[in-house]
Amino acid sequence: MKDKLEALKEEALAAVQTASEPKQLQDVKVKYLGKKGPITEVLRGMGKLSAEERPVIGQLANDVREAIQSAITEKVEALEKKKIEERLASEAVDVTLPGRMVQQGNHHPLTAVIEEIEDLFIGMGFSIAEGPEVEKDYYNFEALNLPKDHPARDMQDSFYITEDILLRTHTSPVQARTMEKHHGQGPVKIICPGKVYRRDTDDATHSHQFMQIEGLYVDKNVRLSDLKGTLTVFAKKMFGEDRHIRLRPSFFPFTEPSVEMDISCFRCGGEGCSVCKGTGWIEILGSGMIHPNVLRMSGFDPEVYTGFAFGMGPERIAMLKYGIDDIRHFYTNDQRFLEQFKRA
Ligand code: 2U9
């Protein structure tokens, strides 16, 4: 009996040794320590033993059972530890690997120029006004002194949606709407940045969709000298303190008188170069005193109120400022172009 128990112990411990899965250990446990296992059988047959043999064999059987049980427990723990170690090794992060560069975005050059212009005018007391890009013919043309058969409508070939609705050709309708909301009470001092649309064939200097910034100041006693002072500050802040400006007579249906503003060339200082095409001057915007008809249509009494207005193309300003030769660069989003305008 003793030998049998010793042999069972050796056999069970060998099975525990060779087990490589928890399931195999469970099988060993059932086989040797289970209710129908050989050790239980020995314990059950104890009654047949002599009084001297019984405690000895009983003790031995318990010792064998405990030895097998603790070998199983130890092996389960060892297998679990091994499994964790293997997982840690396979999932290890190599902290010495070089990192991946994160692509950093930046402002689009046109956005940067628009924000710079906005900040300049905000600094002079203007607020920003916005309005719809899909506009009524009335606000886009009629309220701006461009009646239905006016020839100047041809200058702004338009995308019509219906007979009365179109994609705005300038941001002037925002100004007409804002003035209307003031019910004839000044002051109104706003700039209107936004997208505009014209039926144009795209080339280096034309785009069917582009940006505009227009501005307007309506109050009692607003004069051409206020326009000149305001736009001189703008030109100097935008293109350098030593810039001179000159106003040339022009025509716009919504302003009277109308003027175009040139700045002295920021490249050659007025001597004449390729930027100013040898003239020493660069045209940057159009402006004028708001036409009495326009004031009247937007609810202001032209006998009491006067105002100046101006309009500029930020693409043109950005092209001049950064030496960009093609307006299409702003809209084709070539990474090589955009990356040149990273802010410090
Ligand atoms: C109202 C009254 C007057 C806005 C003006 C211009 C002159 C002008 C062009 C410059 C280049 C547009 O970007 S561009 O194509 N604009 O020359 N715009 S005065 O005058 C207004 C606007 C609204 C109610």
In a nutshell, what does this entry contain?
This is Phenylalanine--tRNA ligase alpha subunit. Pfam families: Phe_tRNA-synt_N (PF02912), tRNA-synt_2d (PF01409). This protein is α+β, with helices and mostly antiparallel strands.
CATH classification, class level of the largest domain:
Alpha Beta
Distance between the termini: 90 Å
Structural class: alpha+beta
Q: How are the strands ordered across the major sheet? A: 1-4-5-9-8-7-6
β-strand amount? 15-25%
Cα Rg: 44 Å
Mean pLDDT: 91
Which topology of the largest domain does CATH recognise? BirA Bifunctional Protein, domain 2
InterPro entries: aa-tRNA-synth_II, aa-tRNA-synth_II/BPL/LPL, Phe-tRNA-synth_IIc_asu, Phe-tRNA_ligase_II_N, Phe_tRNA_ligase_alpha1_bac, Phenylalanyl-tRNA_Synthase, tRNA-bd_arm
Subcellular location: Cytoplasm
Binding site for Mg(2+): 256
Cofactor: Mg(2+)
Question: If you had to describe this structure to a student in words, what would you say it looks like?
Answer:
- There is one protein chain.
- The protein has helices spanning 2-18, 22-33, 38-44, 53-90, 109-122, 137-140, 172-181, 224-239, 292-297, 314-322, 329-332, 335-338; strands at residues 127-128, 134-136, 165-167, 188-197, 209-219, 245-252, 255-264, 281-290, 306-312.
- By secondary structure, it is of the alpha+beta class.
- A 7-stranded mixed sheet has the order 1-4-5-9-8-7-6, sandwiched between helices. Strands 2-3 form a two-stranded antiparallel sheet.
- Helices cover 41% and strands 19% of the residues.
- It folds into 2 domains: 2-90, no CATH class; 109-341, BirA Bifunctional Protein, domain 2.
- The chain contains 12 helices and 9 strands.
- The chain is rod-shaped.
- Strand 6 and strand 7 (255-264) form a beta hairpin.
- One of its GO terms (molecular function) is tRNA binding.
- It comes from Pullulanibacillus camelliae.
- Tetramer of two alpha and two beta subunits.
- This is Phenylalanine--tRNA ligase alpha subunit.
- One of its GO terms (cellular component) is cytoplasm.
